[in-house]
Structure formats: structure tokens, C-alpha cells
């Protein structure tokens, strides 16, 4: 692969990225109190965003499109190919990878639980930044799912943010 794929995501302390219904109110109600998470700097470093249908639909509920100037790819078997002119819909991981390589994508932001899990299982994810919110949800959509094998990580740093948030950065070994 000629591209570098990174995940930058928030979880509850018990490892969920959303409530069972997909709501992220637990994060949006607290997130600003965390202070500078490095997200803006991270976003300036990426040229492409890859997400799944659920994440795409969540983004559509925002009052603004957060990916101006970025190529946005959506991996989905159900989203209509012409769902939105700002995105390209891919049915398969192979088709997505072919497009990323053909277009010369350099640094990719992988967003959403299923896409992150898919990239992890396929050995395509290079780095992982997890911001942990000081809340327990008890149930929801997990960041990580079943794996065929262990995935070794190198812990690069953990920093304490404001309001009880922490953030850890890892390099993923393939």
C-alpha cells in the first residue's frame, strides 16, 4: 500500500464509540471540555476520509460538512452510489483500496467502528489515536470487534486532557 491509514476516535471508558442507537450525545455533551485533542492538526494531515454508511449518516446530521477539501470514500453495501455528490461509494474493500491507490491517496483518516475494524483485520491500519471520555455507557457500538489473530501495538504516548479525558497513540504492527 502506498497510503498510511490512521484512526482518530473517541470512546467511552468501557470501549463504546456510540450508544446502541448510534447516538454520540455522551461525547458531544462533554467533548468541548476536553480542550485541544489534536483533531484539527490531525485533519490537516489527511487527504482522504474513509467511513461506513452509519458514520456517513451521522455526519449528515451535523449542521456542516466537516470534510471540505478532502476526498471522502464510503464503504457500504447498501448506500446508493449517487447518495451524495461529495462522496464516492464503494461496495468492497478491494474496490476502495484500488481507488485509493489509483488516486495516489497518501494519508487516510479511517472513521467509524466497522471501517476501523475492517482496516485492522485487513492489516491496513497504521496508527490509532483513542481519546477516552470519562463515562461508562454499559452498552453500545464497540470500537473493536472479533479478530482472527492478535494485533501488536506500540504505545507511543498517553496524555491527560482536560475534564478527565485521556488520549493514547499507538503504532500498529503488521
Automatic annotation (TrEMBL):
UniProt domain Bacterial bifunctional deaminase-reductase C-terminal: residue ranges: 8-163
Gene3D superfamilies linked to this entry: Dihydrofolate Reductase, subunit A (3.40.430.10)
Molecular function as annotated in GO: 5-amino-6-(5-phosphoribosylamino)uracil reductase activity
InterPro entries in the record: DHFR-like_dom_sf (IPR024072), RibDG_C (IPR002734), Riboflavin_Biosynth_HTPR (IPR050765)
GO biological process: riboflavin biosynthetic process
Name of protein: Dihydrofolate reductase
